């Protein structure tokens, strides 16, 4: 058996992925717990998975392309000894789908080994990389996390804590990270707090995770979130918290609530399912459409749809049935198979849809192409009217903080009015949730969130270089 | 690269699997259409998949263990030429999970090649096999379909139609089959009509499928069901129907409606989703429980739950969240991970369940062990009361016609009263749908169905041999 | 993980393979010993490998495509319990390279399971198969061994010994076989004794093998050959020998000595290496060529070359160097790479060949194409004269007894004179060993051997059907 | 499909591997030619293989664990475009058998991409690595070639030629390297010339290879060796040679002649086969043993054995037969299988050995354990006397220049007298070739070679760090 990693160089591929991170300290079976932690976070990244463990003296590492359950097996986990571990799942829509870019990223430097897992996106990555290369650094990957490690390496003599303090003073943007040395597990989060990160307790030790659903699966008890701007060091002496940053306003990613996080997770202290239901209920208030029933595209739209139906008092139906066996390989359909792209995943139920006025409750519209195909299939199955309500305002601006709805084409709402979008998708009506409706549904103040994808107000300015790169897409 | 098939002999392993079958005639891309047909029928069998095609002169075959999307790729499909094909997906809980038992089963005999795909279970298999062996036949597999082929082989000189007529006169039990020769596609169904089988039209040719959801995906138009006791021969001369059996009462499997078929399929002329909603609504009438909300275990229970909630006027919630990335390999959890078996698939949402009176709408209870674990997890997530309503009566008798809820242990309702089941599972109350409630929800007359798993009245007597075997389990 | 077997039907593919068989009785680790026995017999078949074991009560089976070391691993062997086993390696140049045709062939019939491994080729296979199909038998494979099993099955009521006696009375041609039931290991060999088969003793139990090199590796002690026409039954009562055939002349395959068997084996009571040296020495006597040195194409020609050099008193050199890492996959060379097909395996050594008169000692010439390319490469590396001596007479007739030098094209010596062959290959001279020279080198009488491939005198007449089939190639 | 790389950190694993390197410039099918070049050099490294190509603008890379034929297939080669390429095969006995350490090593730095392939071992690696880490460099691997790249990176602004000049002024030890940028292929060799490296011409372009056998397979014409201390730059302007080093004495590795290189290669201007024959002939002069025949352990000892037999006038025999199907996986033998470790590869031929006085012609004795087992097996096969002659003097000192006969245990001749070695191995007599005999057989002056493994005189002093590390083994 062999492995091989194919790579084309000569282009800088943009690292705008979303990720899930996990870490444990003081656990008998650190690798296995991390496996299950990543299992619960799989929705945050399906491209690669990695686990790095430490015995206190030596660091052990395994990474691969694919789902957590494909990359690891019982034997591999048994060969990852130690009672500390960090893990990472990664998703990328860019060309660099190679194992070199899998995380956690591990380097040996002098006598110390460092492993880092990163969720987010540095906004000054290109500039920092250029400066480091100027000074002789060589980069192995296109990952932001390698930049952080280089910054650490240049300050390690001052000790890991001081080195980390200096490193984070230079990086900008979104980063929720776990860092492991032979004897320390460190979690740190940018001062804006773009991405979630939480702390749990298990068997007298500690657990770090992107979302609480990972704590649930390993039966850890939620303690608190890692705070924005906090560096939390866990070692045999217990917890030590540092906050080296001047206080800054919060900029939680609101899209974690709307779409990205798992509904059974609590993030920023709120349950995602409950928030989604409130978004749906608010939609019902703002747009009391007359319809025979409302339906989600399962499963992401389920929870707002439940809230919408309860709010409006109309029935909920599953107008399309999800195929549970959609594989990851792709066979081209035959010419005669219309609507294949939709039906292979979601088959409309004619007996439910026929002659009915239907409202789709959708979490977001990015490009609109998928929605267009789905609405067409619903009409072919007999739906008399098809309306859509969306549980957030129109997406008009790209994200520079770790979610990639900008790389693969235009945001439809950026270039078209709501009426044009409605017409393009083929809807009888289209209603987006209002700004205030969205914010009030979360229960937070407006300035708690990064809303840049809706209003273009970026809490941390993206560097020129990256900004240009994005506009070129 | 190599292949290997592991097998243990010396025991007769019971072939009580469920399966999905598909066939096309007169199509340019027969193999690919069959691929997608099986794709849509994947819920009927996940263990193995196979496609056999015919060019009119030669027969080509590919089978393997695993999901349709794992067994086939574009290249393999391209190497299966011809404009006729049959395909099969198979599920088995017995020990014989080997590729030898994958279907369609193909044999060459004299100058003719026969391929057969079978859904169901012959009740006189053991006796027929014994008789055939007496006369010198050798069996390669433990599949019922091999018996049918041996019976055909002994009569082939009389022509395939006559041979088939003679063969079916000897077999008893449940069989919905596709049979292919170099130039004919034949579908036949037992006179009781235990398992569904339907006929569609596509591009001027024909399609056979276990369920209509497979017609939908390939954009075929539903024509009619293959009738119980019908032999339908499709060749260049068109359709030819034979009904060699004396008229018998219908014995449709009602469990296809309740659990097994896809909700977007129409079987026996009724939409499955709609029937399940009616079952749920009837439950609401029979058991108007006071509760804060009702919930399914997704996705199988979704549709009865929708009907129940609409009938009772209480909210529907998704109290547990399904993990979409549950792999097919299995890593043992750590000791500290309680309720792992449940949570790895379905994570309870504390914020939804806490302090609530919950009704679970369940489609059936077979052994009760899974239910017990799930209810425990709901209570740990804070549910104050947990009730369960089941959309059919208690399962008290094994099935001999192709569904295997008898092979792996006791049917809990066979040996215990409803009160005992409720106590075992840990429910505050447990209500099964009444017999009449179930039947009226289907919209059919009582004597349309096989209800043997509920009332022990077997439409076709299982042979002594098989009967004993089952009771020994 | 999944398996898949591709097959095209509609053609009768000729089963003229060569094979190696092995069996053990009364051994603690039967599967593992069989693994190593097959390992030593790998040269007799590289296409597929299989092992079947028996615990005395149940039969266990594993087969796959590829080399023994590819098909099996420690875990698979551990899952094949029992103290009896038979194994098989198979080579086929026909299109039927599929796992279905891997051996041993196993069937359950009534209460008995039979496993058979076959080396050789039945000459009345087509006729027997036709008769059996007439009587209702269905064949799964194109292997002769399945015919033997069908004949057994039709007589099993008379007991396995009597059934075997009746079966062998009907089959004609070459067969050295192992047969295993739950509690018996049986070896039998056709009355002519075409293919070798020997008996050894190990740990108080018994071992059956195609060649003694397999006994060597498992440290078994050679006892004797299974005699032509002998049926040897090994069970808990020890050995029982039957000779149901009327005495017939021996027809040992002489090509086993010349090319096919391993040089460290003893077959028909003689060491292969020693016989090959004598063939080479006799060549030296018949053709005392003037040359600077002689060389083999390693490794098959090594031993005759040693004899030739010792006989003639000229140096032996390795004029071409064998690449030990020739893979089983094939990358097309570039246009500029001349002589690739030769050099990828055997690179000529210019410093040895340059300006030299060279004699190649070759074991046989079948089609002549490979020789032609090799001689060209030697000349390009500077050889002044290139002569060839061949350690047997010209191959003029196809073999119907298990070696396939007839299926893929013409035997060059069948259609061309020695002078024409010499000219085609590009030799300065070409000398074949004489008939008498070959026979006297073996130390046996002439009528001990099948010499059909040299003189067309077939000891067992091939049936018309097969004969035609061969000539059509 | 996924990939995974397992690694244990915290120990510095010694990179004392042997390797093969290859490069082409100005070829239509650079990747494919490199594939075949590596194929011919497979004996220099079987652990991993890699090819890096350049289109002139972009660099493409593929590496994997395993043999060249396992790592690459036609499709992978087709996805490596460009008319320049370098390739590498690697062998390591250390723990770091991971794909990360596969070569060529590729980095992007600023706007330039560098790929390097290295054969040899730097003696000041540890010190250089420490200094570079002091200055902030981070290392991804434990390979010496990464050190060279870091040194290059810190000087790239001065241009690649000047950067290379500065880099090689800092490194010490053995290095034969290929270096590729987007538009240049560079070969360089340390001033001592420890490892071979040659230049060929093909289709008007150029080829670089460790040995001439690689030129042979791709039909390139040998031009000359890369000279010790030479930097040869190949680009669209043709060849440019630099010799930045002060003249130093040659230190060719003599063990390449004795054992390591392929016999069909010419290295340092001499044919390896011819040198080995002369070593054997000289042995015959120094030790005219009375024996029935001499034999090698095939294939490495074949050529000295031929020289020995011709010199002494005794027959050459192949007393042991090599199994050509020895797999790379390993099944534990059973208890009853004696001499398994020997026989699985080399089976003694009793009919040749029995009652004979045998001389083994061996190329070297490192630890003696394998020899001991083999001699035991020969005696059990009946050999009356077993003598051994070795075609070089005793190995008494470790190698620090790229061959690892020191890492896995003691050199037996380092700690024991010849008599003790003879007794340990179980020989009737043991004779090593004399120093002068070895040197005169090569046809070179004594001070052309590195003879450190025989006499401890190291041409380049190993740094303290490495020296200690070796002695600790």
What does this structure look like?
The structure is a homotetramer of 473-residue chains. Chain A is an alpha+beta fold and 473 residues long. The first copy, chain A, has two domains: 18-248, Glutamine Phosphoribosylpyrophosphate, subunit 1, domain 1; 272-323 and 339-472, Rossmann fold, CATH 3.40.50. Chain A is built from 18 helices and 24 strands. In chain A, the strands form six sheets. A seven-stranded antiparallel beta sheet of chain A has the order 4-3-5-2-11-10-12. A six-stranded antiparallel beta sheet of chain A has the order 6-7-8-9-13-14, with helices on one face. In chain A, helix 5 (144-153) crosses helix 6, helix 9 (272-286) packs across helix 10 (302-312) and helix 9 runs antiparallel to helix 16. The two termini of chain A are 39 Å apart. Chains in contact: A-B, A-D, B-C, C-D. Chains A and B meet through helix 1, helix 2, helix 7, helix 10 and strand 19 of A and helix 1, helix 2, helix 7, helix 10 and strand 19 of B. Strand 4 (59-65) of chain B pairs antiparallel with strand 1 (4-8) of chain C.
């Amino acid at each position: 058996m062999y492995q091989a990693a194919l790579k084309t160089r000569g282009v800088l591929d943009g690292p705008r992925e979303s990720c899930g991170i996990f870490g444990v300290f003081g656990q008998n079976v650190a690798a296995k717990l991390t496996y299950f932690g990543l299992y619960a976070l799989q929705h945050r990244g399906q491209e690669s998975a990695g686990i790095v463990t430490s015995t206190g003296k030596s660091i052990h590492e395994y990474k691969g392309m694919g789902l957590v359950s494909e990359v690891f097996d019982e034997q591999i986990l048994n060969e990852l000894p130690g009672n500390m571990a960090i893990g990472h799942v990664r998703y990328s829509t860019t060309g660099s789908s190679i194992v070199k870019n899998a995380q956690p990223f591990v380097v040996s430097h002098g006598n110390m080994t460092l492993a880092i897992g990163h969720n987010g996106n540095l906004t000054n990555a290109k500039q920092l990389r250029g400066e480091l290369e100027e000074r002789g650094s060589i980069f192995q990957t296109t990952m932001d996390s390698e930049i952080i490690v280089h910054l650490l390496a240049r300050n390690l003599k001052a000790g890991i804590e001081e080195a980390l303090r200096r490193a984070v003073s230079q990086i900008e943007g979104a980063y929720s990270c776990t860092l492991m040395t032979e004897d320390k597990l460190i979690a740190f989060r940018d001062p804006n707090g773009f991405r979630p990160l939480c702390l749990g307790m298990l068997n007298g030790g500690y657990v770090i995770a992107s979302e609480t659903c990972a704590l649930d699966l390993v039966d850890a008890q939620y303690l608190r979130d890692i705070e924005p701007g906090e560096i939390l060091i866990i070692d045999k002496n217990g917890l030590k918290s540092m906050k080296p940053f001047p206080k800054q306003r919060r900029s939680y990613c609101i899209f974690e609530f709307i779409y990205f996080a798992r509904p059974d997770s609590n993030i920023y202290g709120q349950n995602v399912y409950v928030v989604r239901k409130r978004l749906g209920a608010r939609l019902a208030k703002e747009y009391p459409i007359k319809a025979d029933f409302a339906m989600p595209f399962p499963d992401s739209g389920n929870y707002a749809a439940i809230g919408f139906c309860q709010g409006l008092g109309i029935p909920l139906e599953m107008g399309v049935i999800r195929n549970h066996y959609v594989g990851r390989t792709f066979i081209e359909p035959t010419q005669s198979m219309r609507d294949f792209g939709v039906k292979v995943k979601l088959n409309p139920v004619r007996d439910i849809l026929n002659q009915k006025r239907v409202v789709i409750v959708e979490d977001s519209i990015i490009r609109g192409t998928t929605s267009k195909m789905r609405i067409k299939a619903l009409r072919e199955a007999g739906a008399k009217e098809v309306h859509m309500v969306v549980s957030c305002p129109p997406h008009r601006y790209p994200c520079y903080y770790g979610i990639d709805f900008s790389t693969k084409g235009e945001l439809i709402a950026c270039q078209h009015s709501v009426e044009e979008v409605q017409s393009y998708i083929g809807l009888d009506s289209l209603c987006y949730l209002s700004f205030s409706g969205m914010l009030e549904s979360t229960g937070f103040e407006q300035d708690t969130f990064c809303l840049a994808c809706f209003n273009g107000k970026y809490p941390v300015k993206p560097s020129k270089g990256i900004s240009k790169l994005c506009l070129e897409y």
